[in-house]
Amino acid sequence: QLGDRVKCTGRVPQKQGARLLRACDLFVSPHSSHMVDSKFFGSPTKLFEYMAIGGGIVASDLEQIGMVLSPALRVADFKRATLTVGPERAVLCEPGDVDEFVAAVVALLGRPDVARALGANARAAVREHFSWTKQAAPLCPFLSGHRDRSQVADFLKKPDGREATAGAGV
């Protein structure tokens, strides 16, 4: 019974997608572990977009998704008399548990203050830990032919001497 509150857009151009994401109240990343003989692997690029926007996120605690969004709150945390957000970045749920996921979305929608705090933490985390510069830094010694990390710092500087900060839509 949410048809009047949910709009399914289908595929949209990248620029329009960014605008639409900014209009969201919160972001969801529901996944279940369907792999029998191997671990789930997926690129959490969409999570980085959500984190860069700084909105509240509800996601499944599955492999890379849980790693990127930890530390995190759980649905049980919303049942406490007082809920204070520390370093948490999102609300994580058991993969495939639809009831828990719905409860997490409803709980977070009911607490916009918590969603804002989680979103601010997620945005700070994506800038600090998941920028393209941070992700590329371990590869730079090999790409530049250097093994000395002090030389890598020079490799990461812009021509004007400032550190490069591109990445994760930030």
Topology, please?
Blueprint: H1 14-22, E1 26-29, H2 45-53, E2 56-60, H3 63-69, E3 91-93, H4 98-109, H5 112-129, H6 132-136, H7 140-144, H8 149-155
Parallel strand pairs: 1-2, 2-3
List keywords for this structure.
about 170 residues; about 5% strand
How would you characterize this protein structure?
The longest helix has 18 residues. The protein is 42% helix and 7% strand. Helix 2 crosses helix 5. The chain is built from 8 helices and 3 strands. The C terminus is likely disordered. With 170 residues, it is mainly α.
> Which spans of ≥5 residues are poorly predicted at pLDDT below 50?
164-170
Rough outline:
globular
Distance between the termini: 35 Å
Task: Give me the count of strands.
Answer: 3
Sheet with most strands: 3 strands, parallel
What do the pLDDT scores average to? 82
Please identify the structural class as seen in this structure. mainly alpha
Treating each run of at least 4 consecutive H or I residues as one helix, how many helices? 8
Q: Beta-strand percentage?
A: 5-15%
* Order of secondary-structure elements: HEHEHEHHHHH
Radius of gyration: 18 Å
Strand order in the sheet with the most strands: 1-2-3
Tell me the helix content: 40-55%
